[in-house]
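Quick one before lunch.
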Amino acid sequence: MNIPKFNDPFDCINNKLPWDVDTPDINLVQWFDSLTIKPVHVLELGCGSGVNSVWLAQQGCQVTAVDFHSSATETTRLYAQKHNVNIDIVQLDVLKDNLPNKKFDLIFDRGLFHGIRFQEKRLLSSKISQSLSQCGQWLSVIGSKETYADIQGQDWFMSLFEIADTVEASLQIISVKSCYIQMIDYKRFPAWTLLACNRPSALSSTG
Ligand SMILES: C[S@@+](CC[C@H](N)C(=O)[O-])C[C@H]1O[C@@H](n2cnc3c(N)ncnc32)[C@H](O)[C@@H]1O
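Model of the S-adenosylmethionine complex:
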């Protein structure tokens, strides 16, 4: 299986990126639909073309979508406009910049966390911990290193050990389930769905 190479791998205007499907992530949809109490304030990290942010806004959530690439924030803006939903769209680097100064009931990412370096993962887990509301949860769809044997020697994607090691420094893992990421060129890509929250002992400091 070949992964296409682009000069700018996150430019979703000039490239048709392999993960850039036009339907919301099935793992997000199934999890969201299973909830009795739906999240109100939602942050999507690395929103790409904005499909998941728009879907969440259509479910009645107040969505903030962030991405460091102008092509992503612009595509999300146009996609939200097309679907007549309001989304707060912010261009920022989740590693270098502060996350929006707000508490979120859901922080969602699909394919951002798995693509950053090991130390950055710990940093981002800590930032996510600070940005979750009292009962807030982080749902992350993460490419699986263990099951994706065709890509050798790549440093993105994660093993279960790496997920535990980088997330549990700041957060409590509720569950990790094996799943798939829908891609445009390939049928399905083996992945994990991580659900995490703040530890009860940390809640008094997160508000
Ligand atoms: C694999 S793409 C997934 C896009 C979208 N979530 C989706 O599922 O289609 C990862 C996205 O994260 C963004 N991203 C990567 N690193 C980032 C960072 N440090 N800060 C903000 N956005 C970042 C990229 O620009 C890209 O849009």
